[in-house]
Amino acid sequence: MKIKSLITYICCAFIIVNFSACKKYIDLEPENSTYDEVFWTDANNIPKANAGAYSMLRDALRADRSFFIFGDLAGGNFVTGGDYWNYKDLSKGGNFKFGYAPYLEGSLWNWTRFYAIVNQCNLIIEKTPALPADDFPNGETEKNQLIAEARFIRAYTNFYMQRVWGDILLIKESYKDPQNIPPIARSPLEETMAFCIDDLLFGIDNLPTTGSKAKASKGAAQALLAHVYAWKHDYVNAEKYANDVLSAGYSLESTADYRKIWAGNSKESIWELSMLYNTSGEEHSQGFFNAFLADPAVPGKSVASAWTFDQDVLEDVFTTSERGARFDSIATRGANDQTYFLRKYDNFVEYPPKVPGGSYYAISNNLVLLRLADLRLLHAEAALKNGKPQVALADLNIIRKRAGISELTSAGSDLMIQIFNERRRELIGEGSTQFDLIRMEMFNKIAEFSAIYSADRLANQGYFWPLNMRALLPQNELLTQNPWWIKQ
User: Fold this and answer.
1) Which residues are CB-neighbours of 166 under 8 A, at least 6 positions away?
2) pTM for the whole thing?
3) Which of 301, 304, 307 is nearest to 359 (CA)?
4) So what's the architecture of 1-207+454-488 in CATH?
5) DSSP bridge pairs for 368
6) What is the DSSP string of 129-173?
7) Which residue of 89, 231, 244, 444 has the lowest C-beta tally within 10 Å?
8) Which tens digit of pLDDT belongs to each residue from 369-397?
9) Torsion sign over Cα 305, 310, 311, 314
10) Domains of the chain: which residue ranges?
């Protein structure tokens, strides 16, 4: 896709999403006015524009189950069934050969859909300040809150792309003329992270502390900021903002209520995307969470159409002594005693067919993107990096105790590996492990990865995904391929 075509797609996506998100939009347009001019003159449309951004992010993460591919399949957590023949090379069994993705190139090698979200947010950020504060029910406070919401979504989107593909095209303003776009070079990590930090600091100052977990909040901004600082290995600030989250009133679900986390709006959740089944909405999905499920969780669904726990994960991470109540809650055994399925997302809802003889169902769970256990373990990682092993050990044991496994009694030299393994156990199936491997520099410390990630592959950042240069390069000669994939 040419760079001009890419931006054209972005602008069209904005219009389509807002039209579908707010059906009355067309009623606002006088006979001699354009769509865009009218939309941005009405303060009532800004929340709708933000709702459109959330919707676009949800669709972007769901595309070809890329959220789980980038974070879990690439992290060695699962084995795909035979129906996923084109996913096999992307997993450990295929030596994480990200350069072979037949029929998945559009979702795994092309970041265009994420730039549609960025452009949506840029429009909100640029257009909202011009509206009078009195046009908003809660005045200046609400106006700034809506801008902060868009800046939070923009920060999350930029940060997500950075973790998947490495250095990104840092787009700081909306594109108004798709036919006149100059070539854009990839921005260095520090510039992108600084931009994300600025957005999130604005969010901390202007987002609410309470409300739906499906919307940005002050706690969500603090949590994401802790992750941003950890990614750039500024562990002093990572510890600071993680500690702010730990003190913000969130609490861990009990072991008995563990699976409430994915039922929506739990006391442990910090930020999530709504995907619960609703007869009047379209947030739910059949073909996303169900990747982990087979019969009887989804009646008639074959094991060949499911992802199961990787054997190394079962033997080396969820060892017998490291299973406990948490494992019993999230894993269920298949007909084969050695096969286990993830059941974090197994709320099956069957609804009436839309056509005679049709069969329709949804997996009604939310996608939790930030939660307290994640931040507790991130705090442990940061504390250890900051020379506080006993603080790190205490954090780690809080999660282990909730999981129903034995607490560690000493902070030995392998404590960082213990923290990584605990993150892997706690956050499996939540799109985290691959990013933890990169950030914590674990590829050459764990046998199942060191056998695949050579020194050469690590030096050339072969843990990032390739870009589809055939689609993205034309008319943008400044765009470069990730170094490892030039050689493959």
Assistant:
1) 186, 461, 464, 482
2) 0.93
3) 301
4) Alpha Horseshoe (1.25)
5) 272
6) GGS-GGGSTTHHHHHHHHHHHHHHHHHHHHHHHHHHHSS-----S
7) 444
8) 999 999 999 999 999 999 999 999 999 99
9) negative
10) 1-207+454-488, 275-365
